[in-house]
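Working notes for the structural subgroup meeting. M.R. asked for a predicted model of this chain before we commit to crystallization trials. I am recording the input and output together here so anyone reviewing the notebook later can reproduce the run.

Input as submitted:
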Amino acid sequence: MATQYPSHALVGEVITHVKQLQERVETLKQRKQILEATEETAGGSDSSSPEITVKDLGFIFEVCVICGLKKKLMLHQVINVLVEEAAEVIAVSHSTVGGRIFYTIYFQAVSSRIGIEISRVHQRLKELIL
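Returned structure, recorded in token form:
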């Protein structure tokens, strides 16, 4: 059976709880401001150089390019390199996390008999993004 409180005691508890929540909101706002300032000075702005990886997943390949928001990566240039190396692009996706953009491109060889020289693709893409 539930205990019943006098209404004035319940109101007092509610007021105390609301004040605690307001204090918590203020504390979290301050932490957010500190984190945003830290991110801006420590890497949220293009302080790190672009990164690229090329993986052989069996029948298909994956290129991951990570760069800052201010780095103007021309995605069509990356795709042009792949096409010039006899690749067919299957899928492209991107996401933004913090101050970085993550591009993922899946591709396969136009001709499985000829294949693709991954080391050459990797080198050409590295030259492109730097």
